[in-house]
Design a protein that fits this description.
single chain, mainly alpha
Length: 85
């Protein structure tokens, strides 16, 4: 199975999604992109993510792209199974 489509789909979808989140947060409430990424990391770390600085921003970005890659992989597998019936 070729995993390149999963990588590219996850990368493109993740980049568009996080850009939309950054812009929406900024224009609605003047929330910085770093704070948005810390919010994503707070799903794993809780409120402590807002005090850990750049480390949790990087973690938030990694979690965000991991979610997109995982969901794209699941959809690809489902489409392969559905096509085999």
């Amino acid at each position: 199975m070729n995993f390149q489509p999963i990588f590219w789909a996850g990368s493109i979808a993740g980049a568009l999604d996080i850009t939309a989140a950054f812009l929406t947060a900024w224009f609605r409430a003047r929330v910085t992109p770093g704070r948005v990424l810390q919010f994503v990391a707070s799903g794993l770390l809780g409120a402590a993510s807002f005090n850990a600085g750049t480390k949790t921003m990087v973690l938030g970005l990694a979690l965000h792209f991991d979610r997109h890659g995982s969901s794209d992989g699941v959809l690809l597998c489902e489409s392969q199974v559905a096509g085999s019936y």
